[in-house]
Q: What sequence folds into this?
């Protein structure tokens, strides 16, 4: 048996997996809020197209290390690129994705947290996860059971992994771990190094906790991790049904396993558990009606686009003064341009940069509308001159630390890049 003490657990829990450092060339280069000196967005060559194996890229996210994760639903894959367009090694597990029943997964959204957990959804009630760091280092052992001691009474209880009591004690403040048993079984290790289910709405506990809605029928359409690596993520649920199940759901982290890596480091493995519905259905500012995308800024504000009435783009901001967070609308229909439904034909994606500037993909107009942090319109991109469209059925946008915009263009299965013309770097070539 491996004896592991509580203080050691606390240390590794707070330190685990924060290993990736943003390259120095990208640090402190966040975009500023738009000003009078800004000119226009220009296209950067080359276009990234079929040579990368894209079938129909539909979503894109940028990790803490600057890499791009591109969702391709029809290819059942998530492609990973460096910012110069090269394809790094070590991400083969995200190609031809399959679930634990060996059935193909068709991903629809992806996001990456600071611990290099890659979360993705497939439009069902499930959330999947894959960890880059575990794969880089390798897993040596996985906990399979243990003995817990009650802090007040000193009573010992021995249990095996997987039972409800295991999860209860592992996440309790009243019990400490006295001893753990571990395995080197390669089948178990492989199940953790491959993409696997993080959250399942069909789980009995999640259905019990989701009191007012039907978790097993959830249709997750958007996903975002938290800016500060908090122990939860958010998803949009677009199921609808008789109960108008249009909402934003908070998924909490629950300790599941302790893993020993090949470098002798211990890290926690988590599973997702239903936390709460933080915003529900409605047609006013800050409510949801057929949500399709989700993003978060560094202040914890949530941005989402939707297909229903009346406002295509919303931002809600948390109020943390009470016992639990409440969310109110951060944009107002009477004063903020971004709430003007007349600006959009079909808003399918929203992204926010480090200065809280907002980028909205309008599939209907084949462009991207750009707003400043106050929701005021700045300009649109995706044209040659003022009127000739460059994009054809764009579906998603992301912005890196340098202010480069990456747009998934489903019409020709490519990724287009843009940047403000007065801030082009020497290593970025604009469209002739």
A:
């Amino acid at each position: 048996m491996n004896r592991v003490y509580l203080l050691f657990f606390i240390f590794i829990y707070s330190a685990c997996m924060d290993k990736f450092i943003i390259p120095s060339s990208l640090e402190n280069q966040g975009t500023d809020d738009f000003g009078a000196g800004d000119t226009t967005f220009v296209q950067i060559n080359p276009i990234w197209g079929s040579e990368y194996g894209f079938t129909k890229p539909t979503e894109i996210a940028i990790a803490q290390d600057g890499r791009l994760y591109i969702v391709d639903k029809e290819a059942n894959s998530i492609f990973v690129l460096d910012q110069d367009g090269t394809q790094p090694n070590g991400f083969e597990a995200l190609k031809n994705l399959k679930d634990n029943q060996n059935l193909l997964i068709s991903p629809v959204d992806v996001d990456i947290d600071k611990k290099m957990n890659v979360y993705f959804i497939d439009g069902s009630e499930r959330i999947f996860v894959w960890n880059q760091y575990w794969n880089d280092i390798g897993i040596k052992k996985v906990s399979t059971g243990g003995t817990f001691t009650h802090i007040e009474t000193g009573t010992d209880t021995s249990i095996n992994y997987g039972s409800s009591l295991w999860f209860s004690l592992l996440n309790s403040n009243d019990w400490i771990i006295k001893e753990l048993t571990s395995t080197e079984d390669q089948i178990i290790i492989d199940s953790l190094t491959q993409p696997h289910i993080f959250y399942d709405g069909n789980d009995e506990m999640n259905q019990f906790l989701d009191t007012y809605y039907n978790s097993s029928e959830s249709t997750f359409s958007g996903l975002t991790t938290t800016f500060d690596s908090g122990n939860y993520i958010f998803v949009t649920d677009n199921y609808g049904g008789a109960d108008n199940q249009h909402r934003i759901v908070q998924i909490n982290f629950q300790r599941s396993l302790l893993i020993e890596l090949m470098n002798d480091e211990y890290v926690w493995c988590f599973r997702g558990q239903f936390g709460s519905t933080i915003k529900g259905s409605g047609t006013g500012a800050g409510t949801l009606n057929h949500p399709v995308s989700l993003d978060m800024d560094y202040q914890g504000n949530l941005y989402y686009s939707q297909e229903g009435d009346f406002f295509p783009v919303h931002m809600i901001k948390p109020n943390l003064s009470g016992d639990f967070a409440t969310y109110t609308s951060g944009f107002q229909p009477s004063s903020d341009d971004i709430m003007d439904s007349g600006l959009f034909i079909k808003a399918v994606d929203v992204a926010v940069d480090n200065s809280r500037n907002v980028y909205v993909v309008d599939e209907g107009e084949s462009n991207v509308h750009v707003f400043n942090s106050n929701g005021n319109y700045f300009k649109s991109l995706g044209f040659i001159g003022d009127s000739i469209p460059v994009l054809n059925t764009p579906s998603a946008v992301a912005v890196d630390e340098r202010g480069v915009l990456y747009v998934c263009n489903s019409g020709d299965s490519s990724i287009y890049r843009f940047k403000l013309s007065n801030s082009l770097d020497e290593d970025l070539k604009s469209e002739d």
